Amino acid sequence: MTLHLIKAIKYAVATFFAIFLAQWLKLDYAVSAGIIAILTLADTNQQTVHYIGNISLAMVLSLTVASLLFYYFGFAVWVFALYLLITYPLAAWMKSGNAIAPCAVSVSHLLLDQTVAFPDLMNEFLLLLIGTGVALLVNFLQPSHQKEMAQLKEDIEDRMRTVLCSYADQLDQASFFGQDRFVITLHELSQLIQDGQHLASRENANRMNQDTLYYKQYFNMRQAQTNVLYQIAESLQRLDQKTSQHQDLAQFLIHVSEQLNERNPALGLSAELDQLIHAYRASELPKTRKEFELRATLFAILTDCQKFLKLKKNFYYESNFIYSH
């Protein structure tokens, strides 16, 4: 079901029930409750709640100012214009200027009926309460993106395994594929992560719970790891000769690809990486400038691997903290 169709259904349902409830309560101008419901509905629950705050503040301001003006100057069109001249700047100053239009409609009801009696003011407040209340309830019908995010998580980890295995192949077999192969795969990985971040942001705006916060942090962690993978890809392009250390690093990258699950704290991988770094430092010193450059590049890759694992380790402990509170 497309987002446009979902929004159309929400508009129709909210409008129908708002008008029906207003008519059932025998309120005047019942259709206004439906209009308020339409204007209140937003893409996320957070946006809806924010607009309800704006329109409530603007309505109190509008009815107060309009009542005073109508009481002292009479029910004339120029008084209605004066009301707008006074109220809109105040509403804009209070960050509620986007809600002045439905409030002006409510004030126009007072102008048409030529009254500022308490029952008429309550009629407008009840229309506001019904319209915003129904909109808020209907907006809770937002579809969940949990399944899509779970699938994206699997796709991201599969694509990340492919990248790491490609890096290992280049190191182990001295088969230099060229940067384009890596860049294309990394771009695809980044796009998957961006899709996940977008869904997580929408879900977080609609359902503030542990699962949505978890996915938001998960996709951010994977994006940071992908940035590290870009750096490793650049370093690999400088390894135009195979050395004795290549195979050990390739094997380590294979191990990383096998333990990508976010529930793994990567403690074993960290220990393996420390041993690898120690072995590199204990190995024979480079004798030529070329060997020195290759050694420096390998150490740069090892440093990036440390960053990669640290991101995963930090996420592991942060996610455990989320679920423990």
UniProtKB/TrEMBL annotation:
**Protein localization:** Cell membrane
Q: Does the keyword Cell membrane apply?
A: yes
Could you list this entry's UniProt keywords, alphabetically sorted: Cell membrane, Membrane, Transmembrane, Transmembrane helix
Q: Where are the transmembrane segments?
A: 12-39, 51-73, 80-101, 121-141
Q: Which domain of life is it from?
A: Bacteria
Q: What membrane topology does the annotation report for this chain?
A: Multi-pass membrane protein
Could you state one GO cellular component term attached to this entry?
plasma membrane
Putative aromatic acid exporter C-terminal domain location is: 147-313
An example of a Pfam family matching this protein is ArAE_1_C
This chain belongs to the protein called: Aromatic acid exporter family protein
What is the species of this protein?
Answer: Aerococcus sanguinicola
